[in-house]
Design brief:
The complex is a heterodimer of chains A (625) and B (281).
Chain A: H1 2-21, H2 24-48, E1 54-56, H3 60-83, H4 87-106, E2 115-117, H5 119-144, H6 150-172, H7 176-194, H8 200-229, H9 238-248, H10 252-264, H11 272-276, H12 282-291, H13 296-308, H14 312-333, H15 338-359, H16 362-391, H17 404-407, H18 409-421, H19 428-443, H20 450-476, H21 493-529, E3 536-539, E4 542-545, E5 548-551, H22 552-571, E6 578-579, H23 604-624
Antiparallel strand pairs in A: 1-2, 3-4, 4-5
Helix pairs in contact in A: 1-2, 1-6, 2-5, 3-4, 3-7, 4-8, 5-6, 5-12, 5-16, 5-21, 6-7, 7-8, 8-10, 9-13, 10-13, 10-23, 12-15, 12-16, 13-15, 14-15, 14-20, 14-23, 15-16, 15-20, 16-18, 16-19, 16-21, 18-22, 19-20
Chain B: H1 4-32, H2 42-52, E1 56-57, H3 60-81, H4 86-105, H5 110-141, H6 146-151, H7 156-159, H8 161-175, H9 186-189, H10 199-222, H11 228-248, H12 254-277
Helix pairs in contact in B: 1-3, 1-10, 1-11, 2-10, 3-4, 3-10, 4-5, 5-8, 5-12, 8-10, 8-12, 10-11
Classes of the chains: A mainly alpha (625), B mainly alpha (281).
């Protein structure tokens, strides 16, 4: 087992190095092979997962390597900051350097185990390896069409694997110092990815991403310092912190970890880096900013949820994320660029995941996990489609997409299913949202006045998001009645196969939800919360999980109606029916129509200010209790 | 409402019953305007006449989505009648609405697009209120199932009167009645999403509207608990209220509608949530 887990760390690193050396065809072959192998390992681990977490230590040499890597990484960041004259970047990096230097003198040499793989980690492995793997394969074609040198193309694919290694390591890290390194590695990856195109905007946004995420790094270091200084905690590792957290009752380190998570999850006021990241090539947006990297945020909160559950810190976080859910949705309404709309809705849905993780009851954690999986699949699908729209159809703005229904019915169909899957029954993301609403309803009495406000936020935010999705969809699916034949366009087989794979995965996971729920999600939730497994009772056609239940028959009928109904809609032909022209009220006008434009820019500064207030109050609340 | 024979009958007869309600509504409205009005069965005569019309459509997908809208709305209604999960019902209704909005967007018709846009905005106006009402109902009964409301001995109305008022505020939006009939506004967008349907294909969208009547009035009926007579009284009063309102008010624009919904109806539902949560009534 341990060898397999270590292979998840080492294979991507090795592949990443090899890709730089191999010629083109071999590199392609290797990418596909590595994706298959990594996904297979992740899924094998999933089948083999036991209730006992696997803990293992690595040789002391690695400690040294981690230390050196930490310092060299920070030096690199300082260099980048100084070279591009961004004061925030280098000041934050120097601060981290000082803290880290201080820590090396304080840290005891006797380290416990550095890695800790429980079911949550394996869940992350699946998410990271399968989805990033699909994106790696997709990038083979996408990056081929970029205008850059042959070496940079190889470098791009290689970096994806390097990033996968960092994510796998992060999901398994127990020691906080290791965790810090991997966290910083993903930050560095996002920096390098965002500036890949090397134009001015990319460089600027890359620096924004860098300094904002540095705050996350600094927060982790602060957590480590505080743990080291508090004698009761022992080693700065997740397992020790969680084991002793409730008895020591000093939650400041956890508050700092929460902040690290919230920054990585691009919650207000740190939303700007994720939006800015959309200048990067589309696979990057898909990889870092929708499907995998931002999932670090709910992951951290889930890890520490047994301790922060029910504390004032959790309450403040719930308030913050509920607010972000609405604010990001409102912010998205004003956008026109397809990728920016996706980014905003990612922030909103991440807020919901973090919210559920912070609530921390088994059912809430189950909802968070469902959301993580299905959001990952749907958003990846949508982002890869954004890439296709950009490269094949040359459309970036939703207002340009009015001809898509005729030019690319297949793409339009996939986009439609993708958006619907974030919103409507029977899809998993809907089930996650539904469970979220009901769970908060059931635990409301524990949160007093906060709960009703949160519920209003979720209800409103959900409605705003649905308006947003319709606005986008509406811009792209129209077509004239001149010919009834829908001819699917042919896009490159790599594009087509990855999109179809994701679509099938989405549909299969949705169908498998009644089985995944009792046999997987609740078990991961039990493992994560450290509480007893919530019994899943099947009664007739209802599946009861704690206080919520999933009626199977309506879900099944909804499944027939929605994905199949819409797909069938493209193929159904009514014979012997005459054609009518669209009604124009007797006027001869060109068809020229776009969705409503919502101007919400005025509100955004207030959102940022409120976000800052929440962040400050997380620390204050943790400090004074 | 927990008698399965009545439930099944109601599900099967829902379109007919809805048509009757529509017929009565036209009559009542006419009388309010001192007209005689069409016969009560006029909707069904229209229905038969539409079947005879020449078959026309813009394209097949558009026509098919209209039929799918009817089916999914009927299905959402069935779940409501069977007493399913309230939140699920709201979203199943959203699914049905989503399909008709997609249908509206799928043609290259300006009015159809306008109507679809406006329908999407209407969702924003009524959905949060409904979700909050559903959660209040949970706080009251301890179950998210609508069947718990049907079975409640004390009429829900007396336990959460503010929720009922909030519901009355958003019903005109959901039923597309003046002053909130922006999504179909005949004088402005010529019926909105319905516009491009004709003949036999319009039938689906036309009867779907009847189903919406049943859906909305069932939401009202729910507030009476297991007291059927009170339920019918509530439905009758709401029916008169809706029609009187429809007759006596002018259409507002969508911004005013949203403002009303967010500053009046939603706070009302929110207050109700607070009251049920802290057991103030």
């Amino acid at each position: 087992m341990i060898a397999l887990i270590e292979s998840l760390f080492l294979i991507p690193i090795a592949v990443s190095a090899l890709l730089l050396l191999l010629p083109k065809t071999a590199a392609r072959f290797l990418t596909i092979l590595a994706t298959l192998v990594l996904s297979a390992i992740a899924i094998y681990l999933f089948t083999q997962a036991t209730d006992r977490p696997i803990q293992f230590a690595v040789s002391p040499v690695v400690n040294k390597i981690v230390m050196i890597a930490d310092f060299s990484l920070l030096l690199f960041v300082i260099g980048a900051g100084l070279k591009q004259k961004n004061i925030l970047v280098w000041v934050l990096a120097i601060l981290q350097l000082l803290v880290l230097g201080y820590l090396t003198t304080k840290m005891s040499e006797t380290q416990s185990t550095q890695f800790y793989v429980d079911k949550l980690s394996i869940f992350m492995f699946i998410l990271v390896n399968v989805i990033s793997g699909v994106i790696a394969v997709y990038s083979l074609k996408y990056i081929d069409e970029e205008k850059c040198s042959w070496f940079r193309k190889k470098y791009f694919i290689s970096m994806i694997f390097w990033f996968m290694a960092a994510m796998n390591l992060l999901a398994a890290a127990d020691n906080l110092e290791y965790f810090y390194l991997f966290f910083e590695l993903t930050t560095l990856a996002s920096y390098l990815f965002i500036r890949f195109r090397k134009d001015d905007e990319s460089k600027k946004n890359a620096l924004t991403a860098l300094w904002m995420n540095q705050i996350g790094g600094l927060a982790i270091l602060a957590a480590i310092v505080y743990t080291v200084l508090t004698a009761q905690y022992g080693n700065p590792s997740f397992s020790d912190l969680i084991a002793k957290g409730n008895s020591v009752a000093i939650i400041l380190p956890f508050a700092f970890l929460c902040i690290a998570g919230l920054v990585k999850g691009a919650q207000y006021p740190f939303n700007k880096w994720l939006i800015g990241a959309m200048v990067a090539p589309t696979p990057v947006s898909a990889l870092l900013h929708s499907s995998t990297m931002v999932k670090i945020a709910p992951f951290i909160i889930l890890r520490i949820s047994p301790v922060i559950k029910g504390t004032p810190v959790a309450t403040v976080m719930i308030g913050l994320t509920a607010f972000v859910f609405v604010a990001a949705a409102i912010g998205a309404l004003a956008q026109d660029t397809f990728k920016k709309i996706l980014a905003h809705s990612t922030i909103a849905l991440l807020a919901l995941m973090i919210l559920m993780a912070a609530v921390g009851t088994p059912v809430a954690v189950t909802a968070a996990l469902i959301l993580m999986l299905f959001h990952g699949l749907s958003k990846c699908l949508l982002f890869l489609n954004a890439g296709v729209l950009e490269h094949v159809f040359h459309m970036k703005q939703t207002s340009d997409m009015s001809k898509l229904g005729e030019a690319g019915p297949f793409t339009a169909l996939v986009v439609a299913v993708g958006f619907m899957s974030l919103l409507l029954p029977p899809f998993g993301a809907f089930v996650g949202k539904w469970f979220s609403i009901e769970t908060i309803g059931t635990v409301a009495s524990g949160f007093k006045i906060v709960a009703p406000l949160v519920l209003v936020c979720i209800a409103t935010g959900g409605a705003v998001l649905s308006l947003l999705y319709f606005k986008v969809l509406g811009a792209m699916i129209s077509r004239t009645g001149e010919s009834d034949k829908v001819k699917f366009e042919h896009i490159h087989p790599i594009y087509e196969s990855t999109l179809i794979f994701l679509l099938c995965a989405l549909l299969i996971c949705t169908l498998a939800l009644p089985w995944l729920l009792p046999y997987y999600f609740t078990q991961v939730a039990a493992d994560t919360t450290g509480l007893a497994l919530i019994p899943v009772i099947q009664q007739g056609t209802n599946i009861y999980i704690g206080s919520v239940h999933l009626p199977l028959i309506p879900m099944l009928i909804a499944f027939i109606l929605l994905p199949f109904g819409i797909i069938a809609g493209l193929f159904v032909r009514f014979k012997h029916v005459d054609r009518a022209k669209e009604y124009m009220c007797g006027e001869k006008v060109e068809y020229n129509f776009s969705s409503f434009y919502f101007s919400t820019d005025k509100a955004t500064p207030y959102f940022v200010a409120i976000g800052i207030l929440f962040f400050v109050s997380i620390v204050l609340v943790a400090f004074f209790m | 409402m927990n008698n399965s024979i009545i439930q099944i009958l109601l599900i099967v007869l829902a379109p007919v019953l809805g048509g009757l309600i529509y017929g009565v509504e036209r009559k009542v409205k006419a009388r309010m305007q001192r007209r005689i009005g069409p016969p009560v069965l006029q909707p069904f005569y229209d229905f038969l006449k539409l079947m005879d019309k020449r078959k026309m459509m813009v394209h097949s997908t558009h026509a098919f989505l209209g039929i799918l809208h009817f089916i999914s709305l009927w299905f959402a209604l069935a779940v409501l009648i069977m007493g399913g999960d309230f939140i699920l019902i709201i979203f199943l209704h959203l699914l049905a609405t989503a399909l008709i909005i997609l249908a509206g967007f799928s043609t290259r018709s300006i009015f159809s697009h306008l109507g679809a846009n406006r329908s999407a905005i209407s969702i924003l106006a009524y959905e949060p209120v409904l979700v909050i009402i559903a959660i209040s109902a949970y706080m009251l009964t301890g179950s998210f199932d609508v069947s718990a409301l049907y079975a409640s001995d004390v009429p829900v109305l007396f336990k959460m009167p503010l929720a009922f008022i909030a519901l009355l505020m958003i019903l005109p939006i959901k039923l597309k009645k003046s002053p909130f009939d922006i999504s179909e506004a005949h004088q402005e967008v010529v019926g909105g999403v319905e516009l491009e349907y004709s003949g036999i294909f319009y039938e689906a969208v036309y009867t779907a509207k009847w189903l919406d009547y049943i859906f909305c009035y069932l939401l009202v009926f729910m507030f009476a608990g297991n007291n059927w007579w009170l339920g019918l009284l509530l439905v009758a009063l709401t029916f008169i209220y809706i029609n009187a309102l429809d007759n006596s008010t002018a259409r507002v624009n969508y911004k005013q509608m949203l403002r009303f919904s967010f500053w009046v109806a939603l706070p009302m539902a929110f207050l109700n949530l607070l009251m049920t949560m802290f057991h103030l009534i």
